[in-house]
Design a protein that fits this description.
With 250 residues, this protein is α+β, with helices and mostly antiparallel strands. It has helices at 3-23, 36-40, 46-52, 58-66, 74-80, 109-118, 149-161, 187-199, 226-235, and strands at residues 99-106, 125-130, 139-143, 168-169, 179-184, 205-208, 217-223, 240-243. Among the domains are: 100-133 and 216-248, Alpha-Beta Plaits (2-Layer Sandwich), CATH 3.30.70; 139-208, 2-Layer Sandwich (Alpha-Beta Plaits), CATH 3.30.70. Strands 2-7-1-8 form a four-stranded antiparallel beta sheet. The protein has a four-stranded antiparallel beta sheet with strand order 4-5-3-6, covered by helices on one side. It starts with a helix and ends in a 7-residue tail after the last strand. Residues 68-94 have a biased composition (Low complexity). Pfam families: SPOR (PF05036). GO terms for molecular function: peptidoglycan binding. Residues 93-171 form the SPOR domain.
């Protein structure tokens, strides 16, 4: 047989085998064993479930297909977060403590009140105060004036006989015929002298030496700061300005 004819025959044989393999009856294969529970539960169709599912946007479908979770939009995230509590109102800075002064002295109450009225717009609070009267410079112990000089001399002799040698009979003036028994700078010393005479039966008297100085008037004021205090003394016409405890200013 020629070689060409042999080759053609082999080609046709191969084509026939291939056609039979493709178009012939399928081989019977044994069904795979399935669990009893799986055979009893019928398989549900997918179409109804797909129909009820919510539509998925393109971007969400892409993310789901890739197996990645897509974060919620920024606007939705902000809405979900709880609103921050309102910030507490910042405490106002404490004001500086006021400066308190005693301004004066003034000759009388009227002058002090006029000065306070002139400075009223520059002070936080203020008042007029009178300083305590100055203590006398000295105190005298004496017997009151007698009816005449003879009686004054007789009384002076009796006081000497009682042991008091430091005395003087006043000759002239308003206190003529009085008996001076001592002059003391200390009130306590004058009171001791007076009491010793009374213990001997003499009604000695104790009087201040001269008139006490008049009590001056002052302003007690509170101002905002030291700068205002410097200007206030000139405005109120005060010759002196002294620091003062603010508890004394009402």
């Amino acid at each position: 047989m020629p070689i060409r004819a042999l080759l053609v025959l082999l080609v046709f044989l191969n084509l026939g085998v291939a056609a039979w393999a493709l178009l012939g009856p399928e081989r019977t294969r044994p069904a795979a064993a399935t669990p009893a529970a799986a055979r009893e539960v019928p398989e549900l169709p997918l179409a109804p479930r797909l129909a009820k599912a919510a539509p998925v946007g393109p971007a969400e479908a892409t993310g789901a297909g890739n197996g990645e979770a897509k974060p919620a939009p920024a606007s939705e995230a902000k809405a979900a977060e709880p609103a921050p509590a309102p910030a507490a109102t910042a405490a106002s800075a404490p004001e500086s403590a006021p400066t308190c002064l005693r301004l004066g002295p003034y000759a009388d109450e009227a002058a002090a009140r006029a000065a306070l009225a002139a400075a009223r717009g520059q002070v936080l609070r203020g008042q007029v105060q009178q300083q305590a009267a100055a203590a006398p410079a000295a105190y005298t112990v004496s017997m009151p004036p007698q009816a005449d000089r003879e009686q004054a001399l007789a009384l002076a002799q009796r006081i000497k006989d009682a042991g008091f040698d430091d005395l003087l009979v006043v000759n002239t003036g308003e206190q003529a015929n009085a008996i001076a028994l001592g002059r003391y700078r200390s009130l306590a010393a004058a009171e001791r002298r007076q009491q010793s005479l009374r213990d001997k039966g003499f009604a000695a008297r104790l009087t201040p030496a001269g008139e006490a100085a008049a009590a001056p008037w002052w302003l007690a004021v509170a101002v905002r700061d030291a700068d205002a205090a410097q200007a206030l003394a000139a405005l109120a016409g005060a010759s002196q300005s002294r620091k003062l405890d603010c508890a004394a200013v009402r």
